[in-house]
Design brief:
single chain, alpha/beta, 5-stranded mixed β-sheet, two-stranded antiparallel sheet, 22 helices, globular
Length: 545
């Protein structure tokens, strides 16, 4: 198939529908149940959203924070939880609903990248972008779970799409909408503070010097950005200078005394030179070599972009740079030069951010992948347009790679490893244990062995309301709710199983890692297992028929 064949409208739109269908099917297949059950960051985002709906606070009682205290030493971004609250007002919470906003934003991100690439380049190039992003491993895997920081790249591409379209249509309103999205993206991930600031500064300077927009238009766009972003910048100021928390209406801008987030930034490192070269190595390994990160971000030997993509990424960057450096032309071609320059500024800002954020992984670099997908797809399109026989070979190679990815992700033993990192079986064992009216002893021996993570997972998986675990229920309300005991009386979390048995013996139903079930005496306890966990019930709790 040659590029000329794509001029046939029937062929073109058949391919558009085909790749759009591929994109949807691979993202919704087994959605909500795989990965199983839940990642701790998903649990925290869900618990915060439930608390916001129930009480107008986070799970610690802070009124409408602009940044969650969350884990105490490590804070959490609020955008995803606030999006989730809209769904919780209409649907009962479960893992499918918790992940649904990410899926929707991911599919909208595909549409935004495809449509804007058609404006920048051509409809044929946009088809290649659609085809490539529909099978992209990074995009598929992040769309299927609700890590709150993964919402950040989607809001970035929404902002970029409106920015590119505003250049094409010369519409100031679209520019303002673009800057609103960039402002909202600051609530998606802490990396945005550096990246968005650098990118917008360079872009505004470029627009001013190239006379793309008038100075008053750019100032108005910046005003719209700060209209959304000022609480985040004020939060940064408060924490930089250790000032007291403040409230603006019902909104809280908080000081985090136990934060460890500043240690993630090069400028706060003890040995800045050594850390810089370490950052270069991490950036090279993650972006260029696509080395294995963690199971929820990528698969071994597959990578985030497929291992064969690097040459096409380089070709795409070179060809787009040539478009950006062309002499100004009158008429419709000038916008392509400007949009190409913005794309290169975006990539450069992404790489620079990767150098000043310590020891980046896929998550910390997720802002680069939409632009990287675009330039890679453009590189493949350019090669295809020059030699369609070689282009067909490339397409078949990606088809084989995509099939290999789908097999490994959905059907191979990799599924077992991924499910392990999501604590498969924890929900069913917790629900079964909670069906008994009495005390529950829950082991912290989960994928991440931590007291707070175990507690947050329990609160989400058992759908415990804020009023219950915060101590806001009266004794009568606790009795009416069916919990029987207060939260502090009913739920016990432990790391040392033998000490817990010694302390509680048959007073508790136990939820433990499946590897720890052998500690219990078989003649005194009944053990049932699910996934990687077991529920252990004392014989004395089982009624005699």
């Amino acid at each position: 198939m040659s590029i000329k064949l794509l001029n046939n409208k029937i062929v073109f739109y058949i391919l558009v529908v085909f790749f759009a269908a591929v994109a949807v099917v691979v993202r919704v297949h087994d959605f909500g149940s795989y990965p199983a059950d839940i990642n701790c960051d998903e649990s925290m985002a869900a618990v915060e959203a439930m608390a916001l709906v129930d009480n107008g606070t986070d799970h610690l009682g802070t009124s409408y924070p602009v940044y969650f205290e969350a884990w105490g030493h490590g804070q959490m971004n609020v955008l995803y939880s606030y999006l989730l609250t809209g769904f919780l007002r209409f649907f009962e919470i479960n893992t499918l609903i918790v992940r649904l906003p990410m899926l929707i934003c991911s599919l909208l991100g595909i549409a935004a990248l495809t449509l804007s690439s058609g404006i920048i380049f051509s409809k044929e190039a946009a088809l290649f972008v659609l085809a490539f992003i529909s099978i992209n491993p990074w995009h598929i895997m992040q769309s299927r779970w609700a890590l709150e920081s993964n919402i950040f790249p989607h809001f970035l591409i929404f902002g970029l799409a409106f920015l590119w379209i505003s250049i094409y249509w010369k519409q100031k309103l679209l520019l303002y909408i673009s800057f609103l999205f960039f402002g909202l993206s600051l609530y998606g991930y802490g990396v945005a503070y550096a990246f968005v600031s650098i990118f917008l500064f360079c872009s505004v300077l470029f627009f001013y010097r190239s006379k793309t927009f008038k100075a008053v238009t750019l100032c108005t766009a910046i005003f719209f950005f700060f209209m959304v972003a000022w609480p985040i910048f004020l939060m940064m100021y408060i924490n930089l200078f250790k000032l007291p928390s403040i409230s603006v209406g019902s909104m809280t801008i908080q000081l985090f005394e136990k934060t460890t987030r500043t240690s993630d930034i090069l400028f706060f490192s003890d040995d800045k030179i050594h850390q810089f070269f370490s950052n270069v190595r991490y950036l090279w390994n993650i972006i260029m070599l696509q080395k294995m990160d963690v199971w929820w971000n990528q698969l071994p030997a597959i990578g985030t972009m497929y291992k064969i993509s690097l040459p096409f990424s380089v070709i795409g960057i070179v060809k787009i740079a040539q478009l950006a450096m062309k002499k100004n032309e009158a008429g419709e071609t000038n916008y392509r030069k400007i949009c190409s320059a913005i794309l290169l500024i975006n990539l450069a800002a992404s790489l620079f951010t990767g150098l000043i954020i310590n020891n980046v992984n896929v998550t910390r670099m997720n802002h680069i992948y939409y632009p990287l997908i675009l330039v890679t797809a453009y590189g493949i399109y350019w090669v295809f347009s020059k030699n369609h026989y070689f282009g067909i070979f490339i397409s078949l190679s990606y088809g084989v790679y995509f099939s290999f990815f789908c097999y490994r992700y959905f059907y191979s033993e990799d599924r077992t490893f991924i499910n392990y990192t999501y604590d498969q079986g924890l929900e069913k064992t917790l629900v079964q244990a909670s069906s008994y009216q009495g005390e529950l002893c829950i082991s912290t021996h989960q994928y991440r062995n931590d007291y707070l993570i175990t507690e947050i997972n329990t609160r989400y998986l058992l759908k415990l309301p804020y009023s219950y675990y915060s101590g806001g229920m009266t004794a009568e309300e606790i009795t009416a709710s069916g919990y029987g005991l207060s939260y502090q009386e009913r739920f016990h979390y432990f790391a040392d199983l033998e000490s817990a048995i010694e302390q509680y013996d048959d007073r508790c139903v136990y939820v433990v890692n499946i590897r720890d079930r052998e500690v219990f005496e078989k003649n005194r306890f009944i053990i049932k297992s699910e996934g990687y966990f077991s529920v252990v019930v004392p014989n004395s709790w089982i009624p005699v028929e």
